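Same chain as my last thread, 240 residues:
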Amino acid sequence: MPADLYPTTQPPDSTYPAKAARNNANGTDSELLDRMKVREICEGWGCYRDAAEWRNYRSMFHDDAYIATSWKQGPIDDFIKASKEGFEKGSSFMYILHRIIGQTVDVQGDRAVSKMKVTITCRFTFDGIEMDNEADCRFFFMLEKRAGKWGVCFYTLLFDKDKMVPVVPDKTFTIPEEEARKYPSGYRYLAWCEAKISQPPKMDLNSHGPERDILYAKCKDWLDGKKVQPNLTGKDVVEY
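reply #2:
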């Protein structure tokens, strides 16, 4: 039998933030209001970015925020610059949109973590043929309240699975399976396409790999008031 490409297991108990308030199971009314504020902020990722509402998008983040996607990692202002350039490149890049499905929010004091279910759709054009990559993922936002204002300090994501969908039903381009298998199972076709447009993909964003538990542990550390530093899904330290 082939190996399971999508193993899904419960995160370790050691990564569970037991002191956080969540989903009305515990906490106060003021913490509920904080969770609603955090949710509104995080939903701006798709609503603002997809519409190129850059001023609104930037308002989600504290000035020192760090972003790690599959195609770009770095400070928030560098990420916005790269995103604008991506739109300007048109079909030679990828047309990225987001379908927001739902999210959970943990609040502990002046810190919060949002985990948001999202489907990213990226339209790629190769040899004049358009296809969409649809990637089911989980967005992770680490937020902090500073001077009474919530803002995102760190963002990254994990990929669950992806697929290619033709725009015109009988027109598709071919992705060699032996090449796709070089990439993590949760986003192997997206990663192949990103490499094809000379945008080397980040390789440790697979929800079915060890990076999941690394990220969950860092989310708990964040809520516990500890210092968190990228790489958010790996053990190496990234200066930014």
